[in-house]
Specification:
By secondary structure, the chain is mainly alpha-helical. Helices cover 68% and strands 2% of the residues. It folds into 2 domains: 9-61, Arc Repressor Mutant, subunit A (Orthogonal Bundle), CATH 1.10.10; 68-213, Tetracycline Repressor, domain 2, CATH 1.10.357. It has a two-stranded antiparallel ribbon. Helix 8 (157-181) crosses helix 9. Residues 1-5 have low confidence and may be disordered.
């Protein structure tokens, strides 16, 4: 599946070049935890990465292309995490409550780890449809992964995926709001991005309620 269209990122061909690319991505991730994307300059990114502007532009057309690369990586990491958690359920057919735990814990973990990137993407998606398209693909894939483990004797795979998608979107909406409004929503707290057990339980109940309403 193609995760949405995006400005070109020039792929590294050598190990040293790949290391430089990783340094630039990690520097931007770190800076976005404390700074808005609008305030983040290429100069600041390359300084944080211990790199140069020439190295940056050899890999990215501009800083928006870098954000696309970060968002792509977020999507890949999130799907890989969800796939791992779903596989860990084993061969049994899990209950919807068990699937809720898998989905919520996966989303909380990836959102907490990459909250700076997600904040930036949410703002930039208002003017760049490629971000929104990639986010929709992410939701669809995670929903289908969870739905693949449901009991299909009562519901078709498509119907199960559609119901779970509502739950995924509901949890993501709360997490996204909290990235901007903080502890008022009592989910992701403070600069460390930690989420309490009670908050995770509330998110699981929201997921189950949303799925039941479908």
């Amino acid at each position: 599946m193609a995760w949405g269209s995006a400005p070109p990122v020039f792929p590294p061909l050598q190990e040293r070049s790949r290391a430089t690319l990783e340094a630039l991505l990690r520097a931007a991730e770190s800076l976005l935890l404390e700074h808005s994307f609008a305030d983040l300059s290429v100069t600041r990114i390359v300084h944080e990465a211990g790199s140069s502007s020439g190295s940056f532009y050899a890999r990215f057309r501009d800083k928006t292309a870098l954000l696309h690369a970060l968002h792509q990586r977020f999507v890949e990491r999130g799907i890989a995490l969800a796939r791992t958690r779903v596989s860990a359920l084993g061969s049994k057919t899990p209950s919807m409550a068990e699937l809720a735990s898998v989905v919520v814990d996966s989303l909380v973990r990836i959102f907490s780890a990459e909250r700076g990137v997600i904040r930036a993407v949410l703002v930039e998606s208002l003017k760049d449809e490629a971000f929104a398209e990639r986010a929709r693909d992410f939701v669809t894939t995670v929903s289908e992964l969870a739905a693949s483990r449901t009991d299909r004797s009562d519901r078709s795979a498509a119907r199960a995926a559609a119901a779970i998608r509502v739950g995924v979107l509901t949890v993501m909406a709360v997490l996204e709001q909290d990235l901007f409004f903080g502890s008022a929503l009592s989910t992701i707290h403070g600069p460390s991005g930690s989420v309490s057990k009670g908050d995770r339980d509330r998110l699981r109940r929201l997921f189950l309620a949303a799925v039941a309403m479908d």
